[in-house]
Amino acid sequence: MRNDPLLKLYYRLPLAGRTLAASARGLYLRSWRYGADTDQLVEDAINRESWSAKSWENWQGDQLALVLRRAALQVPHYREMWATRRRNGDTASFEELANWPILEKETLRQNPSCFVADDCNPRRMFREHTSGTSAKPLELWWSRSTVRQWYAIFEARSRRWYGVSRHDRWGIFGGQLVTQIEQRQPPFWVWNAGLNQLYLSTYHLAPDLIPAYLDALSSYRITYLVGYTSALYALALEALRLERNDIQLKVIITNAEPLFDYQRKTIAEAFRCSVHQTYGMAELVGGAGECSFGNLHCWPEVGIIEVDATNTSDGPNVGDFICTGLLNADMPLIRYRVGDRGSLSNESCACGRTLPIMRSLQGRIDDVLYTTDGRPIGRLDPVFKGNLHIREAQIIQETLKQIRVRFVRAPGYSPQSANSLVRELKKRLGPVEVVLEEVTKVPRTANGKFRAVVCNLPTGLLMQIGNGGNPSRPR
After folding, report:
1. Across the chain, what does the average pLDDT equal?
2. Do 209 and 180 contact (CB within 8 A), yes or no?
């Protein structure tokens, strides 16, 4: 649905047609994600949760050796890098991870196809676009085997840990525009039979529209929810205000945004279930899931996580995550700076699993923006999923009626890029004025962090919105 002509065609379809289109897409995704070997892959992942630290060290060492050799000899970017180092007299071995330089996102973004192994055909691979939290578009390719292994691990350590599965009826709040932003009548969702999934819009969660969402969760018999924390929190606040006691879910799983204690408490109270967070990224170089004791357990099969604690004031052992992917050897990313920060721990967990613990996760703290009628919009990175020729951007809201975008242009930037950016923002935020401000570099915070989204609305207005008021109506 990212292709604009297809999206326009989709919007013109009746509800039954939209359901058919979404379900067809779901069947396509299911064919990539799951197969006859999925159940065994899931069981294997569960069995590995009790491995000793030594077993994990040996397994990761063997897999890392294969990835490093393949990257150095068969991946154009790395092969040229090592050839240049050899010509310059560097005798360091590519078999040692410490000898590899840190890979920055900008390098990957500039020429992603150079990271695909020679013996792979990208046309036969799953192609993914992502901008992450920095609004820098990335192109990624995964083999079918990689996709299935990733989703098997997610099934094992997200759904199975919480007593649900992909076969249950579930709902998701994500970044897809399942209906036009100006629509004020339900449905604000579409049923995807291919994945047994109700895809709910995150762009229509105004207080007066949320009752329709709650009715949909009940009528579609949704068992659990996955999605952006900000969307789930907005839903929970209104459910509590309306005293909706007819919806009880088995679990709610948050992703893409941090989960704060006050949000967890509110969401759990509203839907009378546990709330857990997950950590991952489209680059497939790291992942983690939260156990019932509140610890985020790393997924060692996905990648090796180093913590670069140099030049940090965030606390002891806290720093940038530098990740080396082990799951996707066809597009290996080695010592890749993912843009998140945190710390790791060797402590044991009362849950009994021996998976390493991610002690803190300090990245991905983007602000929530608001539409003129009080709808919170928690994630705007889909705006940048496309070839906009923008290196980085920051979206700033200082009034409900105006959005300012600081951006750094890349080669190929044109007026069409600006028009596309404005159009995509208005699709999500409604009739706002979008002011584009070209800069040479988006300012960072005092400790060097990049904030992709900044909300500078007055505290009083935020309190009014949080209490269920519509800021566009006179009081």
Report:
1. 89
2. no
